[in-house]
């Protein structure tokens, strides 16, 4: 990996850690995305829920409001077909409606199962590269002026085990996660000082739909829910995240 691995103690997230901050979460209704959205809201942030299925975003919105969390904001965006115009519209809407942006968590992911490259459908490969690499780049670029305006802001990229993803059959997902890590490293080199910082996280195995699809036959319920990873991401978004600036927070057990 181009980015160094770090291991930090992540205690329970204080209730007001992200008070007054605005955080954008892509793939917000997914397993990790929804956990991050709730954890960031519990820490006091106004969360922008981004995803392609409006109905599922609305269900997450209702769940968060019923739980007494700060009211989130819904912004539907389909990363499979979005264009630079859509990303600029997202950034403009955040500035117009909220006036600031303090963090982005790129939790959206495209994964179509384990497939040999010789059998990989080209459109599936291109879709994964677009959702997993090109979209995080375009969203971050469009929102960078807002992020750099904040005194303390961060973008968090979610990675996966590089040793595992270099093996057979991981296809577009493996290639895209490697590309995402390298892009994060370049972005950090370009912003290694100042209020805006680049963060990345390497989760331990967790109970998600992606895990169920990738590990056919495994009892996914034996894996923990993504709550611990979500708490670590919120930690990275807060002031203490500076300790892992330009590094990958490694949550795997060794």
From TrEMBL:
This is Short-chain dehydrogenase. InterPro entries: NAD(P)-bd_dom_sf, Sc_DH/Rdtase_CS, SDR_fam. PANTHER family: ALCOHOL DEHYDROGENASE. Belongs to the short-chain dehydrogenases/reductases (SDR) family. Keywords: Oxidoreductase. It comes from Dyella thiooxydans. One of its GO terms (molecular function) is oxidoreductase activity.
């Amino acid at each position: 990996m181009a980015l160094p691995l770090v291991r930090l103690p992540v205690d329970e997230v204080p209730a007001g850690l992200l008070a007054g901050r605005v955080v954008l979460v892509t793939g917000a209704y997914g397993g990790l995305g929804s956990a991050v959205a709730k954890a960031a809201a519990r820490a006091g942030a106004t969360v922008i829920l981004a995803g392609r299925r409006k109905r599922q975003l609305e269900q997450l919105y209702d769940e968060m409001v019923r739980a007494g969390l700060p009211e989130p904001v819904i912004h539907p965006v389909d990363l499979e077909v979005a264009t630079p115009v859509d990303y600029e519209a997202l950034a403009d809407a955040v500035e117009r409606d909220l006036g600031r942006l303090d963090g982005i968590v790129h939790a959206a992911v495209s994964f179509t199962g384990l497939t040999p490259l010789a059998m990989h459908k080209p459109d599936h490969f291109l879709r994964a590269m677009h959702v997993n690499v090109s979209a995080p780049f375009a969203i971050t670029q469009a929102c960078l002026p807002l992020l750099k305006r904040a005194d303390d802001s961060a973008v968090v990229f979610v990675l996966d085990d590089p040793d595992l993803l270099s093996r057979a059959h991981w296809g577009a997902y493996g290639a895209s996660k490697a590309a995402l890590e390298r892009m994060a490293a370049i972005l950090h080199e370009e912003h290694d000082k100042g209020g805006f910082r680049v963060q990345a996280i390497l989760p331990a195995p967790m109970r998600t739909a992606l895990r169920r699809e990738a590990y056919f036959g495994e009892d996914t319920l034996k894996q923990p829910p993504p709550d611990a990873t979500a708490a670590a991401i919120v930690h990275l978004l807060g002031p203490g995240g500076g300790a892992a600036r330009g590094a990958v927070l490694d949550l795997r057990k060794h």
